[in-house]
Protein: MurNAc-LAA domain-containing protein
Amino acid sequence: MPYKNEATPSKVSQRYKIVIDAGHGGKDPGAEGVSGNREQAYTLELSMKVVDLLQKEPMFEAYMTRTDNTFVGLEDRAQIANDLDADAFVSIHGNTYTDPDVSGTETYYYADESLPFAREVHEQLAETTGFKDRGVKKEGWKVLTNSNNLAVLLEVGFLTNRSDETNMLSDMHQNRTAGAIVKGIKKYFVDRED
Ligand SMILES: [Zn+2]
Structure:
């Protein structure tokens, strides 16, 4: 087996460290969906699918800020990525609003350097969820302002909207969504190498 352990794709010049942050957890369950399902469970399921896909890509090393239902502080989440000297931090959330008719996908960034990355991931994500495209927005969420690396926060859809939530809780929709997130991340880094 002469090629064992060798990186076969010759173009892989660098491995990018990607930190996937499953929003909420433990004493902070996050939003309550229409069905009573909590946001922390959704974000963990989707994050694990994203990490599984990232690990199949030779150009990425994937990390998680939590791997079970435990509480991790907002500063600590960003710090995990900073300590790793990560290339990108992607925080995954499900949205909530008092009006159950409000639905859609939105992506947040804070530092201007993160905007092209946010756009790339959002484009894939919004197209794939099939939800209303609510766009890319700048906001000073703590996990973003404390990050020293590219950082985005994805609000995949509204757990308080029955239609969004039904999709978000389906395994098939989660697999497609995870694929879209990874495609967006990959596109950004591949384009940067060219
Ligand atoms: Zn959240």
Observations:
- Helices lie at 39-54, 74-84, 115-129, 142-145, 162-168, 171-193.
- The first strand starts at residue 16 and ends at 22.
- The domain at 16-193 is CATH 3.40.630.40 (Aminopeptidase).
